[in-house]
């Protein structure tokens, strides 16, 4: 059966890795935005952020596969994912130590870091934090759905599995995944390599689509 082929299994592995890494990355961004809030408002902001990210993933999932069928958008999606890869590489290379501590404290609903220092997130209002979270959610949800769609191309069942998993992880386990990735950074590096591979493949296939369309139009 087709789901036992190496190509299908490879696509599924890529999709699962992408979902894990991007769900954790999204949770860290949400935690960082909420870190400057008083403790009684922090959980509210995180809940709003995770809920918004879940809804956005559903919305983007409904339209992304149709959009990628339009000539040129596969290439554009690949370029966007290449930029996402560069951002992830820069964050992983720098370590983002202080920011990650602040984000982890917020996600754990703690006011004191492991080193015994108070949380030091930049102070802000709930409205400012929620606005920052929503803006980040739009970008990261689109990144996630594009990456899953790119990895699962030609495998509709893998695409469905990936999108359902993405929504479930974001809604149910994103904070746990964020802590896991922060502890085992090699997971994030594997995810980065897979996203980079998907981005380059989308650019390659998208460029060929554009070239063929230009030849036919000539």
TrEMBL record:
The chain crosses the membrane at residues 12-33, 69-86, 158-178, 184-204. It is a multi-pass membrane protein. NCBIfam families: R_switched_YjbE (TIGR03717). This is Integral membrane protein, YjbE family. The keyword Transmembrane applies. Its main location: membrane. InterPro entries: Integral_membrane_TerC (IPR005496), Integral_membrane_YjbE (IPR022301). Keywords: Membrane, Transmembrane, Transmembrane helix. One of its GO terms (cellular component) is membrane. PANTHER family: MEMBRANE BOUND PREDICTED REDOX MODULATOR, SLL1022 PROTEIN. Belongs to the TerC family. It is found in: Membrane. It holds the Pfam family TerC.
């Amino acid at each position: 059966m087709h789901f036992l082929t190496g190509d299908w299994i490879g696509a599924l592995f890529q999709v699962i890795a992408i979902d894990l890494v991007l769900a954790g990355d999204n949770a860290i961004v949400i935690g960082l935005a909420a870190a400057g809030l008083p403790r009684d408002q922090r959980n509210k902001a995180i809940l709003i952020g995770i809920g918004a990210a879940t809804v956005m993933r559903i919305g983007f999932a409904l339209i992304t596969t149709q959009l990628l069928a339009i000539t040129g958008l596969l290439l554009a999606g690949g370029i966007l994912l290449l930029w996402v890869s560069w951002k992830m590489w820069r964050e992983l290379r720098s370590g983002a130590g202080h920011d990650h501590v602040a984000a982890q404290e917020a996600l754990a609903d703690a006011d004191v870091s492991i080193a015994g220092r108070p949380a030091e997130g930049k102070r802000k209002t709930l409205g400012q934090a929620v606005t920052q979270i929503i803006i980040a959610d739009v970008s990261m949800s689109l990144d996630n759905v594009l990456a899953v769609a790119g990895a699962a191309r030609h495998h509709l069942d893998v695409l469905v599995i990936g999108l359902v998993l993405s929504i479930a992880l974001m809604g149910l386990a994103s904070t746990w995944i964020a802590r896991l990735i922060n502890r085992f950074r090699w997971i994030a590096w594997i995810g980065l390599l897979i996203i980079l591979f998907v981005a380059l493949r989308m650019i390659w296939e998208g460029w060929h689509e554009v070239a063929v369309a230009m030849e036919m139009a000539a």
